[in-house]
Structures are given as structure tokens and as C-alpha cells.
Amino acid sequence: MNQNHRRITISFRRPTLTEVLAVIAITLILFAILLPPVKWASSGSIQLPVRIVVFDAAHARPIAGAQVTIVWAPPLADVESIDEYRDRFPANSFGDVAEDDRHLTGTDGTVVVEQEFRTGGSHRRPSHAHLRWYWVMVLAEGYNGVVIPVRHESQPVAILREQKEIVVPIGLLRAQ
């Protein structure tokens, strides 16, 4: 028996640079599509001037000499949470607020307080300043005091930088 054996040879040619780059590009695109997006979070702070305008709500006149301070306290979710943080808002006084953190309005009823606000951002939401965690307390002789948040919601840091300051108007009513 005589068998003829044929030898089969396969030869590969060397790929061109264009072909190699195309394979690399396709591989990178597939990785980018298949890999989950990068998740990140950041925190920090931003220093902003807060212009507080105190006025007589019944007569729309500025109140000079009103005492003003800004305190940190969590946003209130419901009536029960008021009791939990009542010590942060003492009646008719600033309680433990340091003298350096107390300010008086001028003849135009305004005072500017430099305040540092906490910020945070993530891959889903750009950096925001948490303004609702900061409360303005105002006391003026002959008027009922008031405590209100700087804002009721967080604000984008980029917008706050454009505005350059936060304005908080506060109307007071005469004490009965």
C-alpha cells in the first residue's frame, strides 16, 4: 500500500499597521460599551457672602440694628424633628452663638455674612451646595424673631459662583 501523503502548509501573512489599529480600536470600543460607567462622588465646601435684608413686613421699611447669625442645623422634615433640634434655636437669644458670629444690620437693614457651605456631587449630579442645612436667625427689638433656612433646597455650585452672593430677604412683624 502506497499512500501519498500530501503536506498541507498554511501560511499567515503579517497584518498591516492599519489592520492592527482597527482591531485595537474595535477592542477598546467593545470594552467601553461592556464596562459599567465610572462612579464617583466628591465633597467639599464653598465660601459665599450671604446678604441678609431685614425689613418691617407691615411697612416695607429697613430695620437697622437687627441681630443676625447663621447656624447649622439639619433641614426639618416634620413637626417632630423641631423638638429634636430645639436647642439650636433658643427663644429671644442667640444662645451659644459666639460673639464673632453675631452681626448687626446697617441703616439700610442689610448685613453681609461670609459663610462656608458644605458641597457634594456625584457622577449623576454635579456639585451642589447644601444651603438648606444653614439657618438665618434674626432678632430685633420690638419685633418677633425669626429662623429660616438660607434656601429650602440645594443649589448648583456653578450657579452660585455666577451669582457671587446669596440674598435672603426677611420680613419681621412687630411683637404684640
Task: Write the SSE topology.
Blueprint (H helix, E strand, L loop, with lengths): L16 H18 L6 E16 L4 E2 L4 E6 L6 H6 L18 E2 L5 E13 L5 E2 L4 E6 L6 E4 L5 E2 H7 L2 E7 L4
Parallel strand pairs: 1-10
Antiparallel strand pairs: 1-2, 1-5, 3-4, 3-7, 5-6, 6-9, 7-8
Summary of the model, kept short:
The protein is of the alpha+beta class and 176 residues long.
Class in CATH? Mainly Beta
Which stretches of 5+ consecutive residues score pLDDT under 50?
Answer: none
Annotated CATH topology: Immunoglobulin-like
By DSSP, the count of extended strands is 10
What percentage of amino acids are in beta strands? Answer: 25-35%
Oligomer: single chain
CATH architecture: Sandwich
**Rg (CA only):** 32 Å
Largest sheet: 6 strands, mixed
Order of helices and strands: HEEEHEEEEEEHE
Principal-axis shape equals rod-shaped
Structural class: alpha+beta
- The pLDDT mean sits at 82
* Overall tally of structural domains: 1
Alpha-carbon distance between the two ends: 125 Å
Helical percentage: 10-25%
Total count of helical runs of at least 4 residues: 3
Question: How would you explain this protein's 3D organization?
Answer:
The chain has 176 residues and is of the alpha+beta class. It has a single domain (41-172), classed as Immunoglobulin-like. 18% of the residues lie in helices and 34% in strands. It has three helices and ten strands. Strands 1, 2, 5, 6, 9 and 10 form a six-stranded mixed β-sheet that branches. It starts with 16 loop residues before the first helix and ends with a strand. The model has no long low-confidence stretch (mean pLDDT 82).
